[in-house]
Amino acid sequence: MENTSDIRQLNEKIHQASAFVDLLNLELSKVIVGQRYMVERLLIGLLAGGHVLLEGVPGLAKTLSIKSLSSAINAKFSRIQFTPDLLPADVVGTMIYNQQKNEFVVRRGPIFANFILADEINRAPAKVQSALLEAMQERQITIGDTTFKLDDPFLVLATQNPIEQEGTYMLPEAQVDRFMLKVTIGYPTKEEELHIIRQNLNPQATATINPVVQPSDIITARKLVREVYMDEKIERYILDIVFATRNPEDYKLQKLKPLISYGGSPRASISLALAAKAYAFTKRRGYVIPEDVRSICFDVMRHRVGLTYEAEAENVTSENILSEILNAVEVP
Known about the structure:
By secondary structure, this protein is α/β, with parallel strands linked by helices. It has 14 helices and eleven strands.
């Protein structure tokens, strides 16, 4: 057990180091109205070094948020629009023949950036998605026989449209699991939408996003996020949540057993712990409380709980299952 003065010092250190989170939020709020939840989750992904999958209908500022975030961080941004005819070379790059030099040279693809927006990721075939997978997991790209390390910070922010299923490919489980967070986005409120209309129709209101943070600050902050103090009770709490998705009967949740086809993997436990630390960091705290785990739990777990046909027939969602689990698992 760390002593109280250590935790107090750490808390002080993180309180100072996390000041840029408010700067980022302030900068982004110039352009993005509402959607605080989405912006907060993007920051958590950024600080925890985890990729984010955004799901929502078109026109909810998903692309705008990601673009604005990369401008505010002074980082290199590239957007890849996924289509059914996209090839892996369109994403990672390819070898092209240079006639003057009489040799093949590497032409790098759009994946060589800090922020990759993979727009409508479920429209591209499996081959393209597997090329993206190597980049997401190993943070490297292989073109021909050369392997390139990707820049740090490297973050894939993918969007998918939940309505249209025609001409889309279901993301394979292994790939969905690579996303630390899956964030579902709703419509703005009436007041927010009124503000959006006014902002878009007023020629004076076009705000520009200024870089307020450098990529090196993000790399430093990521190291600090891992230092955030997490008590063993909280670690056990995270394990209980994940294990309840695998063996609900051990937590007096027998009724969930026929609804779950598979539970969270160890990657779910790691992501939940890391995201909870990043959440505490954005709240400018040097230690994790149970509330941090609960707030981030749905985003980390919703895509990691498999539903059976029975659950789908009864219109049970993974959110319903997670709510039951959070209510049943004892909070430290």
